[in-house]
Amino acid sequence: MQKYIFSRLVQSLCILFGVLFIVFFMMQVTGDPVSLLLSRHATPQEVEEMREELGYNRPILIQFTSFVSRAVVGDFGRSFRHKQPAMDLIIERLPATVELAVTALLISLILGIPLGLISGSNPGSFWDVISRGTGLLGQTIPNFWLALILILVFSVNLGWFPSFGRETWHFMGLTLPTRSVILPAFSLSLFTMGQLIRFTRSAVLEIRSEDYVRTAYSKGIPDRKVYIRHILRNASIPLISIVGVQFGYLLSGSIYIETIFSWPGLGNLLAESIGNRDFALVQAIAFFSSFVVVTLNLLTDIAYGLADPRIRYE
Amino acid sequence: MDNNSTGQQIPTGVAASTGLAIDQKQETGLWHFIKYTAHLLARDKAGTIGLIMFVIVVLSAILAPWISPHDPLKQNLRHAKKPPAWYEKGTMEYPLGTDNLGRDILSRIIYGSRVSLTVGFFGVLIASSLGIVIGLFSGYKGGKTDNIIMGGVNMILALPYLVFVVFIAAILGSSLLNVILIFGFTDIPIFVRITRGEVIKMRASGFVESAVSIGATGNRIIFSHLLPNLIGPIVTIATFEMSAMIFYEAGLGFLGLSVPPSVPSWGNMLAAGRKYLVIYPWIATFPGLAIVFTGLGMNLLGDWLRDVLDPRMRRVKK
């Protein structure tokens, strides 16, 4: 097990180094990064000063080394717009994104798994049609459009939810979410929900025809117990990896939703900093999101290895 | 082609579900293949609907100048913000209404399909052709080469896709060519992985070994044995990837990072319509429906292709 964890850890570190490489060299692709940072009307003197200040007149390998050595300790320079270290801004915006992603994950788990379960155990039934339809729509409806339609129906026409912003509720020193999270989280969750329905359905269909399920039934174990002990339990092992990957997707994929709902999270910060040509911040967010996703993948793989011994020995 | 003989072969082939029917299909050529496919398609309602939806989108892109009721770029402030025809104030002149500058929404949606399909088609063309070459090489060589290539592929697949697409688009600047290149290159790993997987599976099965033992050259094995067997999985993945690219292109357009705002594209229309969501909701609603329509059609088509192009699946299903 230790060997397995160690090799996965080394892999993750390699990926993160690759990310630093991409993030750094993408900025060089267009030629002079300073031209991205300054406005078109900057004088040659201003350009020179900025190059000097940011160290862009040094050889490229030295620049890369210093970029990496600062990035390792979380220093991506200062945001030009906010005049603050980029990492501080990220930490400040993180709670909102986590709140949104966790809520979206909960919604998709609570709706997706039961729907997939019902659908898989009664193929061809009414609920199966509903589940498969939801799964298909989850894959085809763009979440940014769904968000607009939900705002139109539930905020503008019915007035049930606010159409933008994040409101929190402070209770005993805790910051708790309010109904303002429902619409953005639901729009974000539809794709994940569809994946979970599809996955649970096919897992249940497959496991239902296994020998041990037939044995369990033939021993006279009641339906409910067979589902909980045998079918759900076996489906839950691969489910871990789906949930891990999807959580990473929810944390890093909320750019549109956060923009539409003016949700003060990382996705919104990314869209904003692209609009402002604040590339130090864009680099920092790209690296931070990758870091979160890679770490989640690593944890998922470890959990998977713990749950299923066969994986470890591959 | 003898109509009678094909008419007999197809149903028995499908009903008997034997390998024999598939062999006969290869002997009788392309026309038979088309007929056979059409026959399988007729048995699958969802696939038929998907194909029809996709054909509608393709035709509207090709025939855009002839079927659009108006010039998609022509502004007419006197007719601005007209609601769709079924509203009280709507007219049949603008069936889906007009946007904030008085441009006809239906015409812009029809022209918008050109951007979406161009990005999807050329994006997939670049990604699949490079991906197949790299995947064949990686799977066929094996060993260290394979390890290095797959390391790179897994690295790219582990990254948050959306963040990187947005990041790269922001740096390269918005143009149709850039969008195609971004999707074309970032999607290579998907095709490498599927090609490599299939090649490794095929190498393990007998026919590659037999070809080697009768002295076939490397090129011959790749072109006459491996590539034809790859077509099924590749076409299936290509359909899903094309639909994903159309989706992501609209998303980039929504953030103002795809084609320039003057070009009618579904993403650009959504971005513009968002500002008027509360007062003139139709401006953002219809381009979104166009995206859903295209995505739904391609997904249904992809599901069907997956069942049909993989002979193993076909036998299980019938």
UniProtKB/TrEMBL annotation, chain A:
The chain crosses the membrane at residues 12-30, 100-120, 141-161, 239-261, 281-307. It is a multi-pass membrane protein. Its main location: membrane. It holds the Pfam family BPD_transp_1. Residues 94-300 form the ABC transmembrane type-1 domain. GO terms for cellular component: plasma membrane. GO terms for biological process: transmembrane transport. SUPFAM superfamilies: MetI-like. It is found in: Cell membrane. It comes from the Bacteria. Keywords: Cell membrane, Membrane, Transmembrane, Transmembrane helix, Transport. PANTHER family: DIPEPTIDE TRANSPORT SYSTEM PERMEASE PROTEIN DPPB-RELATED. Belongs to the binding-protein-dependent transport system permease family. This is Putative peptide transport system permease protein BAB2_1050. It comes from Desulfamplus magnetovallimortis.
From TrEMBL, chain B:
Keywords: Cell membrane, Membrane, Transmembrane, Transmembrane helix, Transport. It holds the Pfam family OppC_N. It is a multi-pass membrane protein. PANTHER family: OLIGOPEPTIDE TRANSPORT SYSTEM PERMEASE PROTEIN APPC, PEPTIDE ABC TRANSPORTER PERMEASE PROTEIN. Belongs to the binding-protein-dependent transport system permease family. This is Dipeptide transporter membrane component of ABC superfamily. It comes from the Bacteria. Residues 113-302 form the ABC transmembrane type-1 domain. One of its GO terms (cellular component) is plasma membrane.
